[in-house]
TrEMBL record:
GO terms for molecular function: transferase activity. It holds the Pfam family UbiA. Converts heme B (protoheme IX) to heme O by substitution of the vinyl group on carbon 2 of heme B porphyrin ring with a hydroxyethyl farnesyl side group. This is Protoheme IX farnesyltransferase. CDD domains: PT_UbiA_Cox10 (cd13957). Belongs to the UbiA prenyltransferase family. Protoheme IX farnesyltransferase subfamily.
Length: 301
């Protein structure tokens, strides 16, 4: 009787583990930026069916990339306080189970994009998966403190993927959205790396706070937030956005600069993590402001 009763609990835990394997919060932010890219790609509303197919396909391939990250990093994950309880690292899911799951997600996502959206989006999304799961996770992450700078391009691709899903072309405006996330990624991640510096040092991971020190990393974060401020002005300067975006972007970036300033010159034990958390809200709200500005701008014409 106890064994029978325990079966539903076992499967419930296993599904939770598979769900955790996809890094749902990270994927949700990626899909949001892809979704905004879809909406910005044309003046009116996108075709609902096409948008749903693109969102699911991009989400599945992003989840597959996250699962592959769990597989590749399982040894170091088991040694780090932040990641030791991940399903593969703890042995709740085997490597084989995780590989099959990630390949299933990737296969279904790619076919959905190829058949229901367009081949360009399918191949670009697959290239992003390769960039994150192979180039970044397997090589750059272990090779250079500039890992997140170079590897961040894969994570910056979703707005372009959303745009190409609607138009089947690579547009310069979509590349500006990629530039924003590409510039946002280092200060976002380095704030977390400062907070978890000892964890990365323990597993000999060459993150910037480990190789160059925390003070150097704080300076890099501050300088990157200044560059990000300038990059975020580009959509307005080229006529892609209007005053709503300019105002929202300015407020958000001044907030990010303030956090980076506090981290550099007035840091407390919790400042690095507070900066990391703010950066997530920064990107999420920035893209929602892009969306608001887009339809505000269109309605004003």
């Amino acid at each position: 009787m106890l064994k029978v009763l325990s079966l539903p609990q076992h499967y419930s835990q296993q599904w939770r583990d598979y769900y955790q394997l996809t890094k749902p919060k990270v994927v949700a932010l990626l899909v949001l930026t892809a979704w905004v890219g879809m909406m910005l790609a044309q003046p009116g509303l996108p075709k609902l069916g096409l948008m749903i197919a693109a969102t699911i396909g991009i989400g599945l391939l992003s989840a597959a990339a996250a699962a592959m990250n769990h597989i590749v990093d399982q040894r170091i994950d088991a040694q780090m306080a932040r990641t030791y309880n991940r399903p593969v690292a703890r042995g709740r899911l085997s490597t084989t189970q995780a590989i099959k799951f990630s390949l299933l997600l990737a296969g279904v996502g790619f076919l959905l994009l190829f058949i229901a959206v367009n081949p360009l989006t399918a191949w670009l999304t697959l290239a992003s998966l390769f960039g994150y799961a192979v180039v970044y996770t397997m090589f750059l992450k272990r090779a250079t403190p500039q890992n997140i700078v170079i590897g961040g391009l894969a994570g910056a691709m979703p707005p372009l993927l959303g745009w190409t899903a609607m138009t089947a072309e690579v547009h310069a405006h979509a590349l500006l959205l990629v530039m924003i996330i590409f510039t946002w990624t280092p200060p976002h991640f380095w704030a977390l790396a400062i907070h978890r510096r000892d964890d990365y040092a323990k597993v000999n991971m060459p993150m910037l706070p480990v190789t160059h020190g925390i003070e150097f990393t704080k300076s890099a974060i501050f300088l990157y937030t200044l560059v990000l401020f300038l990059v975020c002005l580009l959509p307005y300067l080229v006529g892609m956005t209007g005053a709503v975006y300019l105002l929202g972007s300015t407020v958000l970036n001044l907030g990010f600069i303030w956090y980076a300033w506090q981290l550099k010159f007035n840091a407390k034990p919790e400042t690095a993590m507070a900066t990391f958390k703010f950066s997530i809200w920064h990107l999420m709200v920035l893209f929602l402001v892009l969306l608001l500005d887009h339809y505000w701008f269109i309605s004003a014409l």
